[in-house]
Amino acid sequence: MKTIEIKTDIFWVGAIDWAVRDFHGYVTPNGTTYNNYLIMDEQITLLDTVKYDFSHITIDNIKQLTDPSKILNLVINHIEPDHASSIDKIMSFAPDATIYITEKGKKGLDRHFDTSKWKFKTVKTGDILNTGKYNLHFIETPMLHWPDSMMTYIKEAKLLISQDAFGQHIATSSRFDDEFIECASHAELEDSVVDYYANILMPFGELIKTKIADIQKLGIEIDMIAPDHGIIWRKAPGEIIQKYLDLANGKASLSIAVIYDTMWHSTELMTLPIMHGIKDEGVDCKVIKLRATPISVAIKEFWKSRGCLIGSPTLNNILYPSVAEFLTHLKGLRPKNRVIGAFGSYGWGGGAVKEAYEEFKKMKLEVFEPGMQVLYKPSVEDNKNCYNFGREFAKKVKEYHVKFI
Ligand code: FEO
Questions:
Q1: Class of domain 256-397 as given by CATH
Q2: Reported pTM
Q3: 240-276 pLDDT, tens digit each
Q4: CATH 3.60.15.10 domain range(s) in the chain
Q5: Protein residue with its CA nearest to atom 1 in ligand 1
Q6: CATH for 4-248?
Q7: Looking at the annotation, which residues are catalytic?
Q8: Chain centroid to CA 199: how far?
Q9: 3 C-alpha to center of ligand 1: Å?
Q10: Per-residue DSSP letters for 57-97?
Q11: How remote is the CA of residue 23 from the centroid of ligand 1, in Å?
Q12: What residues does CATH 3.40.50.360 cover in the chain?
């Protein structure tokens, strides 16, 4: 692999994972990258490692620039295995290097490796590592998205190494946003940012706002943001910061995601008049069948839309399993600023719609009641009711959406 100089004497030495399609259960149809960076200064310093399977690639990349035994400092911004599982490989080349890490990061590493043989310096916000011409300022970002997380700002290069924040799961030969947009598209890049945010960072919106405000208060100049996944932001780093603020503030399109599953097609039949009702109210609508769609894609579509209708048949008096699984994922992501309602078919006792509302009430969402239920199969009358249900739901979503304009 070719190393890329992203700033004077600062090189991308990471790996491209073209093949990964399941990233701890999150689908990655476009693969990903594990970005890490080598500073060829008086003190040679490596920022982060890569997923273990790719350790030979980052080591080969480092060898193009220096003998890895000359690495004096290893900064670990985040200990999740996609960034930290090659530490022992790196340290086998540079056993005398000092590892710079947060206190929580050190405690986490102690659980993964025999760390007794390595030198550590635990750091906190405000600490600085001088490597020669560069000063690396550490900024703790706990729970963005792990307790150990931090970022590293290289002042003289105006470069923020942001670890997972501002990342995307895209495997591409382009390293920078402007290159990627030129050969792919802005829309594809934006979709990947939303996908990543929705599935990984959604629970941390308030923290993101606070941390961005803290960074802005420091008055630091940033002309490049280099995350640990995907492309590097050099064309307009301010735009990705604003995009994160928008996402954290609950920005969404005036649209509705109808997310459902079905047994004998009755719940599926309900989606059609519901969709017509929504559309006739002037709101865009996307219908997503869970059994045909990875959960992480459904989560992204949920987050892009101001409203969501969940459709589930009743099975054994409770939610259909795929719908229950989706709601479990959603609840863990602590969604906010969205309107939600439910519909579904049943054969005798019912129960799915009731259980869906019980789940909604545990989340901080605007709940639209009552839900819509159909016995066995929708009749002509039921179809009219479904249409009206879709219209009424869309009216509610339009009213609610005004708050965010
Ligand atoms: Fe890309 Fe939280 O690891």
A1: alpha beta
A2: 0.93
A3: 999 999 999 999 999 999 999 999 999 999 999 999 9
A4: 4-248
A5: 164
A6: 3.60.15.10
A7: 24, 78, 80, 82, 145, 164, 196, 229
A8: 4
A9: 22
A10: HHHHHHHHHS-GGG--EEE-S--SHHHHTTHHHHHHH-TTP
A11: 10
A12: 256-397
